[in-house]
Amino acid sequence: MIVETRDLTRRYGKTMALDHLNLAIPEGAIYGFIGPNGAGKTTTMRILTTLLLPSDGQAWVAGHSVVRDYQAVRRMVGFMPDFFGVYDSMKAWEYLDFFAAAYGIPASRRVSLVGELLELVGLAHKRDTYVMGLSRGMKQRLSLARTMAHNPPLLVLDEPASGLDPRARVELRELLRELRAMGKTIMISSHILTELAEICSHIGIIEHGQLLASGDVATILKSLQPHHVFEVHLLSDLEEAAALVRGGPGVLDVRSLPDSSPPMLQIDYQGGDQGVGDLLVRLVSGGAAVTHFAGQVSDLEDVFMKVTDRAGAREAPAGAEK
Ligand SMILES: Nc1ncnc2c1ncn2[C@@H]1O[C@H](COP(=O)(O)OP(=O)(O)OP(=O)(O)O)[C@@H](O)[C@H]1O
Ligand SMILES: [Mg+2]
Predict the structure, then answer these.
(1) How far apart are alpha carbons 90 and 96 in whole angstroms?
(2) Is residue 303 part of a domain?
(3) For a surface tag, which of 54, 104, 140, 289 has the fewest beta carbons within 10 Å of its beta carbon?
């Protein structure tokens, strides 16, 4: 585990920003840290990057305590905060050069390093543009380049996608993939993880400073989905096809949707993968003309809404003031 916390707690006066948080992020993961406003995401990230002290509990980055061994932690982690500071009189290259110098990288190495970083985030052509003259998306990318100045194995990115247009989001996603391929572990926070769903390997869902769910994406989806829904598109009669699978092993329900486009069957199924193959065999050998057979994938957004819903239900009984 490159990140681990044990009962990590942070209070601001009476506010419990983090409430005995136990996180574990494996090396090489892209860890999506999802939660609504005020959930404790930024607080967690600031503690992991040694910018804030915990009130209680412990946290380690690559085995180093963020409290006792903060200097070692700082070498291991690059942080992209949710706000870009004001650096009006600096050009893009000067900005990176400044931070690289702050990390103690010698001037002789910095020239090529700054070029490489600008190249990596697609800003080589903006090398001599003043930071204030960059668009928001470009500033975000410059900020991301900065987190890598000292080549840390862990990147902690606080809402890097907020305020980006759709194209910039796609580009960010590609960039994250590239970084992962370079061997980085990435922790990334968001309210809305739909756009990151396909690139995250793990997710943690946080609300009111507590971790509601955490693990690899597939396991979390599975644990929240008691059964699978398969969609079958057919050229042949829907009802005939439905009769072939209805009542079969693991089949909970079969709905025929003649008015959907294209017309389809929806099969609620609970059981192992072997049985899924059997479903398809039964359809095809029974004479159904199947053109498409696939399990519905619920996205992280659904997961998030389900899990936080439950937490809300638990904490706010009917009529209770929040
Ligand atoms: N400096 C501070 N002083 C007092 N309370 C704070 C401070 N920083 C955060 N908090 C409180 O701690 C809780 C967690 O805040 P945090 O910024 O970690 O949430 P977040 O998940 O990052 O939210 P957002 O999605 O809005 O960025 C909130 O209740 C917030 O009001
Ligand atoms: Mg925040």
Answers:
(1) 10
(2) no
(3) 104
By most ligand atoms within 8 Å of CB, the mutation choice from 43, 55, 206 for ligand 1 is 43
Q: Is 39 in the pocket of ligand 1 (CB under 6 A)?
A: yes
Q: Are both 209 and 115 inside the same structural domain?
A: yes
**Atom of ligand 1 at shortest range from CA of 13:** 4
Q: Round to whole Å and give the CA distance between 140 and 146.
A: 10
Domains in the chain, number: 2
Ligand nearest to the CA of residue 190, numbered in listed order: 1
Does ligand 1 have an atom closer than 6 angstroms to the CB of 272?
no
Residues 95 and 24 in one domain: yes
Q: Is 41 in the pocket of ligand 1 (CB under 6 A)?
A: yes
138 and 263 share one domain: no
300 lies in some domain: no
- Whether residues 28 and 125 share a domain: the answer is yes
CB distance 42 to ligand 1 below 6 Å: yes
> Which pair of tokens denotes residue 62?
């690559």
Tell me the residue range of the domain where 204 lies.
3-222
Residue 81: CB within 6 Å of ligand 1?
no
**pLDDT by residue, tens only, the chain of 322 residues:** 999 999 999 999 999 999 999 999 999 999 999 888 899 999 999 999 999 999 999 999 999 999 999 999 999 999 999 887 777 789 999 999 999 999 889 999 999 999 999 998 889 999 999 999 888 888 888 999 999 999 999 999 999 888 778 888 888 888 888 899 989 999 999 887 666 667 889 989 899 999 988 888 877 766 666 667 899 999 989 999 999 999 888 899 999 999 888 899 999 888 878 888 999 999 999 999 999 999 876 655 666 666 666 555 444 444 444 3
In contact, 187 and 33? CB cutoff 8 Å: yes
Q: How does strand 185-190 pair with strand 154-157?
A: parallel
Residue 241's closest CA among 295, 288, 289, 290? 288
CB 9 less than 6 A from any atom of ligand 1? no
